Amino acid sequence: MDTVSSVGTLKVVCPHCATANRVVRDKLGQGPSCGSCKEPLFPRKPFALTAATFDRHVASEVPLIVDCWASWCGPCLAMAPVVDEAAARLAPGIHLAKLDTEAEQAIAARLGIRSIPTLIAYRNGKEIARQSGSIGLPQLLHWIRTHAGAF
């Protein structure tokens, strides 16, 4: 991939091993895999963020939707299958991840999480939108498409 011009490529961080990959934009729909671990770069399911991987994923050139949740939160648990279904329906080009605010309290504090569930949309390292409270699948898909778009 090093011979491909960076103009038509995106830096995609692997949700499995956090390796940065260059992917040709026109090939996002072809199910690209990580050059390091060979796992799909767009697995169609949410993946977990940790303190070790958070900043790397946020800095990716791929829009990132983060679901901030906790295991003791009833609305978070009710929204979990909605988040799973949304991830399955998203076209390649958007990552959907989950941040356990209990396990990653330092990240949650840095983000200023005051209530959960909270969704945060990132693009190129910058927060572009935030939504607190539980929402249904149609609203979630609309929110993601409005704020993260697609490639």
Helices and strands, with pairings:
Layout: E1 9-13, E2 20-24, E3 47-49, H1 54-58, E4 64-69, H2 74-89, E5 95-100, H3 105-111, E6 118-123, E7 126-132, H4 137-148
Parallel strand pairs: 3-5, 4-5
Antiparallel strand pairs: 1-2, 4-6, 6-7
Indicate the CATH class: Alpha Beta
Uncertain spans, ≥5 residues at pLDDT below 50? 1-6
CATH fold assignment: Glutaredoxin
Average pLDDT number: 91
What global shape is seen? Answer: globular
> What's the architecture in CATH terms?
3-Layer(aba) Sandwich
Alpha-carbon distance between the two ends: 19 Å
Sequence of secondary-structure elements: EEEHEHEHEEH
The biggest beta sheet reads: 5 strands, mixed
Helix/strand class: alpha/beta
Rounded radius of gyration (Å): 15 Å
Total helical segments: 4
Number of strands: 7
Number of domains: 1
The CATH homologous superfamily is called: Glutaredoxin
Please provide a written account of the structure.
By secondary structure, the protein is of the alpha/beta class. It has a single domain, classed as Glutaredoxin, CATH 3.40.30. It has four helices and seven strands, in the order βββαβαβαββα. It has helices at 54-58, 74-89, 105-111, 137-148; strands at 9-13, 20-24, 47-49, 64-69, 95-100, 118-123, 126-132. The strands form two sheets. It has a five-stranded mixed beta sheet. Strands 1-2 form a two-stranded antiparallel sheet.
